[in-house]
Design brief:
With 228 residues, this protein is an alpha+beta fold. The protein is built from 5 helices and 7 strands; from the N terminus they run αααββββαβαββ. α2 packs antiparallel against α3 and α3 runs antiparallel to α4.
């Protein structure tokens, strides 16, 4: 049986073929469209509060542990102090460390129990302005409290202070400003030294040491016995 031919040319017949149109799909949001945004915001706020609380608790715990270590090291609790050179030095050093810490946050306190020295370690950014190369107000107040505590020492005890930097270049840049501030705060320049010690570059250590004051030998000429 012969195939019926269309009156249209073959190309025109192909052009007349069109795909069937698909039905239009409309998106209809379920419920309140602002609910996901609100939930996300609440989750972010909750997360921020949790992180903030965790940091706060960590700092409080760290500060309590630090202060407790200072008290235990230098026997500052009532009823533990006894008369004697070692206990006197320990009480003075403990008061000096606490006085300094009231103004300058300390990262670490080192010193033997009942000993005659203490090492206070702090971030260098808390005691010096790296832009102006000047001592901070916190360091000025801390040095004043330290000097006041050392002024109450017995006459037979002498003190020495040493600023310990971990890098010689950092010491050359900032030691002069810190020494000048310490001298203005009541520290005897003849008892203040600058040195280097191993440690983090961003940290500074302050060594405070109490030693018995050397007694001058007796002058034989002043002997009243008249012995030759």
């Amino acid at each position: 049986m012969a195939e019926l031919e269309s009156p249209l040319p073959r190309k025109e017949r192909r052009a007349h073929r069109r795909p069937l149109p698909l039905p239009e799909v409309k998106f209809v949001p379920a419920g309140n469209p602002s609910l996901p945004t609100f939930v996300s915001l609440m989750l972010m706020i909750t997360t921020f509060m949790i992180v903030l609380t965790s940091i706060s608790l960590h700092e409080n715990t760290r500060m309590r542990a630090l202060m407790s270590g200072v008290r235990d090291t230098f026997a500052l609790t009532s009823g533990t102090a006894r008369d004697g050179e070692g206990q006197t030095a320990a009480r003075i050093l403990g008061a000096a460390a606490l006085g300094f810490h009231t103004s300058v946050p300390l990262a670490e306190v080192e010193g033997p129990t009942g000993g005659n020295r203490v090492i206070l370690t702090m971030p260098i950014s808390t005691v010096i302005d790296t832009t102006t190369k000047a001592a901070t107000t916190e360091f000025e107040k801390g040095v004043a409290a330290l000097a006041a505590a050392l002024a109450g020492r017995p006459a037979d005890l002498d003190y020495e202070l040493e600023l310990r930097f971990s890098d010689g270049a950092v010491a050359d840049a900032f030691a002069s400003a810190l020494a000048t501030t310490a001298s203005a705060g009541g520290i005897d320049p003849a008892r203040l030294f600058v040195g280097t010690a191993p440690g983090p570059r961003e940290s500074l250590s302050l060594l405070v040491r109490l030693d018995p004051r050397p007694t001058a030998p007796a002058d034989p000429a002043s002997d009243s016995t008249g012995a030759p």
